[in-house]
């Protein structure tokens, strides 16, 4: 069946199940998360189930190249292009692995949705410039290797409409967790932390979601520096648990201007990447804070900035009963304990309690958004991003599937 005929058929019968793969490589830069998703319905009536998922670490050489491209480093065109193509191939291989895990094949797929590492996030400026994202991971390579249409670069259409391009997870949070009675804060702690408050009887067109600040990004960078590259993250929060939070240093770190901004707002490595980590070590040196005490303090920075944003922006707007936690930070026991301490009265539940594993969730997001986009439905939430209107997200790389008509 011709691709456009297939799209028309699914639009006519949206409740027919579709198989979609989501691929995610985020700001932590540690690898690729992949999920095979069965989905049906559209918009508020969408349903999605994870069939299989996996996490695939980057080869060390690819990870090193990616980190050499992050700000404040400068990069040349050839090095950027080589990384762009190599990551595209790695993304395709991750999709093949997750299909193999499920005993499925690419000719069963409707679409692949992908999000590669963001090299630079341009924030909206006072001079009127629009937001923008520079992501790597060539979607055309994925489409060619899999023979499947690929939707990528999902943020930039929202930016072109005056939005910040993030967080885009709000639509999927709403689909999965809205409730008539229970108020939930869906909290992702990836490289950056973001939250979607879902008050009882929330409406999609009135959501407010935002980035609370750094998630694992600063913690990971501190661990990597103090271990001279031997460790890239704080496994289970053990280092933070063995250290002590330095309150004066924490107070200084919380003075970052991002924490004073009012939602909708978004951030990334341009504010909490290498330059910020350099500042952390400079201030830590003045206070004599090092080792596990520094890990504990930057872990408290993540937890404190989340809690502060709840108190200032989230809880005054309506009733929240529980936090639904996902992302790599959900595996950091010390971070979870700090959140429980800083937000007493809110029950913390893991995303996996609702049938979707922590590891699969971010890839699920891009699978659902790609499916919504290929069917021609908008999936940004203007009240979240600040966009002037709803937009269909992403760019389509068709690959050989368009001509061969393999997907039916």
UniProtKB/TrEMBL annotation:
GO terms classed as biological process: 1,6-anhydro-N-acetyl-beta-muramic acid catabolic process; amino sugar metabolic process; peptidoglycan turnover
Keywords, ordered alphabetically: ATP-binding, Carbohydrate metabolism, Kinase, Nucleotide-binding, Transferase
Stored Pfam families: AnmK
EC number: 2.7.1.170
Annotated residues for binding of ATP: 26-33
Similarity comment: family membership: Belongs to the anhydro-N-acetylmuramic acid kinase family.
InterPro entries: Anhydro_N_Ac-Mur_kinase, ATPase_NBD
Protein name (record): Anhydro-N-acetylmuramic acid kinase
Residues annotated as transmembrane: none
Gene designation: anmK
